[in-house]
């Protein structure tokens, strides 16, 4: 199977497949002409990566998950620990987003939204405290 077919079968763009190969997550065979050749096992790994990335696992998490998947003597507690750590990161991000939403909702509520030029939203953005969200995005 060539990269286009592998992309279609796994649901990943060819560019992502090339990237996963470059960083060592997959290692498709090469034909004598140098083209990548994907077998069923590689397609399964690509689909695995697609699902894991879709659930927000980092590349390094995916590397660890694939290692665990390939290890028949793995302990399920290792897989659970990795997933639980990811769940903690998701919960922290949800809390940040809820805090951000509450702030923006308060700003929207404070604005009359009429024809006057006064706007508490702009005033707050111009003079309000820098949050950790703003400083993180500027790094």
Automatic annotation (TrEMBL):
Predominant location: cytoplasm
Pfam families membership: MerR (PF00376), MerR-DNA-bind (PF09278)
Location(s), subcellular: Cytoplasm
InterPro entries attached to this UniProt entry: CueR, DNA-bd_dom_put_sf, MerR-type_HTH_dom, MerR_fam, Tscrpt_reg_MerR_DNA-bd
Domain of life per record: Bacteria
UniProt GO BP: positive regulation of DNA-templated transcription
GO terms assigned for molecular function: copper ion binding; DNA binding; DNA-binding transcription factor activity
UniProt entry keywords in alphabetical sequence: Cytoplasm, DNA-binding, Transcription, Transcription regulation
GO CC aspect terms: cytoplasm
Domain HTH merR-type, first and last residues per copy: 1-68
Keyword S-adenosyl-L-methionine applies: no
PANTHER family with a match to the protein in the record: HEAVY METAL-DEPENDENT TRANSCRIPTIONAL REGULATOR HI_0293-RELATED (PTHR30204:SF94), REDOX-CYCLING DRUG-SENSING TRANSCRIPTIONAL ACTIVATOR SOXR (PTHR30204)
Name this polypeptide is given: Cu(I)-responsive transcriptional regulator
